[in-house]
Structures are given as structure tokens and as C-alpha cells.
Amino acid sequence: MSQSNDKIGVLVMSYGTPKSMDDIESYYTHIRRGNPPTPELLAELKGRYEAIVGGVFPLRENTDGQVAGLQDKLEQLAPGKFVCYQGLKHASPYIEDGVEAMAADGIKRAVGIVLAPHYSSMSVGGYLKRAKAKAEERGIELAGVESYHLHPKLIEALTERVRNGLAKLDRTSGGATPVKVLFSAHSLPAKINELGDPYERQLLETSEAVAGRAGVKDWQFTWQSAGRTKEPWLGPDILETLEKLSAEGYKGVLVAPVGFVSDHLEVLYDLDIEAKQAAADLGMALERIEMLNRDPLYMETLAESVEEAAATLKA
């Protein structure tokens, strides 16, 4: 039987990624609600992972590192007060596993936070719903961080990356002009806007704040990585946007995927390989900003958001 623990648990949640090439099929079967990918789709998916990792699989390390970085930052801000646990949507340890681990350690109060700054009922909302349901079952009070998309330190970190990205694009393109900054995020089914979901609005707010602070006047928002379903997804997709920019005479593009916080398939393949090749075929140079990963400002954003949510818990 576990002993009572006065520490506040922090359930750090994210989408998850396969642990190895061998786990790709089971991972996508979970995403597809128990329906395995067709042999053709599985071969394509494995090809994408092979292209970015070459059989070595560092993607999970990014999330592990962010959880460890948040634990370190929380320990600096409030020694001995918080202890972090990990919960993934589509891979082990699942969200429910993270809550179970807290319960086993005697945690009675907790904060749930997602490694995604922008709220949608289909993303962050779904994570928190699962976490709260399991926490209630296990007698844990859990407060959720719904979004932190305008946290000053997040905006500062992204602004620095846009400035550095523009300098890199200027070097690699030989000073090509004109240049467009494209802010991007993972597309979701378009029906979310009919439900009054704040996802798109929050992404535009982040983009506007970063562009303003970086002094970027020529920018727009675009979507990427839409799912392959019959229903319409939010658009335009970045590949369509690149074609339009080429037709308008643009010679350089900096992609700022502000909806993502670490290096993974949607960044390393969809942008670094697919979008970059599409831009090259159109006669444009394309670079992207560095991802946040364990950036100290991002860790502080998370830690301060956790502290703020923890203040709402019962003493």
C-alpha cells in the first residue's frame, strides 16, 4: 500500500511516438483505433521514419528530455514541491499509466500539462479529459493547464528562433528576396471551427505576437500534416501555400512551426524533407526555425504554468 505523499504530481502529456522501427505498426494501429494500417500505408510510414532517423530512433528522447528539463526547472523554482510523471496519448506509458504511477506513489494532488501550447478540444482537451477521469477514479485532485500560447517566455523563445532563422535563410539562399515567414501547426478536422474551438485563434495570436516582436511584417499562417480521412481538414496546406507564394514571386521561405515544440516526424519529414523539396522544385529556398526541445525559456514557460495551476489546488 502506498504512503501519503505531500508532493504535487505533474503529469506531462504528449502525443507519443514509436520507440523503434518495430513499434511503428502497433503505434499507428492505436492511432487508428485498433485498425492496422494497410501494408501500403505501413510501408510509406516506415519509409518516412527511415528517412529521418535511419533506423536509429531518437524521437522519444526529445519528450523524455523535456520531462526531465521541466523537473529540473520546477526543482529550482520550488525545491521538493513537484514530481513529474509522463503520460502519452498513443504510446506507453499512456496517460492513464502516468496517473496510476502517481497513485502508486501516494500523490493526492496533481497538475496536468500538455507539450502543446494551444488548446483544442480534439487535442489538449482530450488529454486532460482522460487524465481527469483516471485521477478522479484514483482519488487524485487534478488541475489542468489548458494553454500557454501567449506566455511571455514562450514568445521570447520563438522570437529568437525566427530572427536566427531569417539570418540563416539569408546565408543559405545568398540573400534571396522577397522572403515570407510561414507560421504553421498541425491541421485538425475543419469541424472544430463550427464548435467554437479556440485552436486556430490561439495559433494566430501566437504568430502575431512573435511576428510583431521579431519585426516581421511579411508573414502568414498555414497548416500542415493533415490526416488522411474523408472529412475536410483545416487549410490551406503548406504545400499549396508554397505554390501560391512561388506564383507571387517569393524566393525564400522561413517556416516557423509554432504548433510544435520538439523535433519529430511532422517537422523532420513533413517540413525538412517534403516541404523543402517542394520549395526547391518551385525555385524557392526554404529553412525552418529550430524547435524548442529543452530550451530554458520553454522549460520556464512550462514550470510557471504548472505553478499557476497548482495554486488552484486545495491545500
What features would you highlight for this structure?
single chain; 315 residues; alpha/beta; Rossmann fold; 2 domains; four-stranded parallel β-sheet; 8 strands; globular; Coproporphyrin III ferrochelatase
Average predicted confidence as pLDDT: 95
What is the number of domains?
A: 2
- The arrangement of helices and strands along the chain is EHHHEHEHEHEHHEHEHHEH
CATH class label of the largest domain: Alpha Beta
The 3D shape can be described as globular
Q: What is the count of β-strands?
A: 8
Number of helices: 12
Our measurement of the CA-to-CA distance between the termini, rounded to an integer number of angstroms, reads: 23 Å
Sequence stretches where pLDDT stays below 50 over 5 or more residues: none
What would you call the structural class?
alpha/beta
Beta strand %: 15-25%
Written account of the structure:
Its EC number is 4.99.1.9. Fe-coproporphyrin III binds at residues 15, 32, 48-49, 127. Involved in coproporphyrin-dependent heme b biosynthesis. Catalyzes the insertion of ferrous iron into coproporphyrin III to form Fe-coproporphyrin III. Belongs to the ferrochelatase family. This protein is α/β, with parallel strands linked by helices. The chain has two domains: 5-148 and 295-310, Rossmann fold, CATH 3.40.50; 152-288, Rossmann fold (3-Layer(aba) Sandwich), CATH 3.40.50.1400. It is built from twelve helices and eight strands. It has helices at residues 24-31, 39-53, 59-77, 95-104, 124-137, 152-172, 191-194, 199-214, 238-247, 265-268, 270-281, 296-310, and strands at 5-14, 82-88, 107-114, 141-144, 179-186, 219-224, 252-256, 285-288. The strands form two sheets. A four-stranded parallel beta sheet has the order 2-1-3-4, sandwiched between helices. Helix 5 links the parallel strand 3 and strand 4. Helix 4 packs parallel to helix 5 (124-137) and helix 6 (152-172) runs antiparallel to helix 12 (296-310). The mean pLDDT is 95.
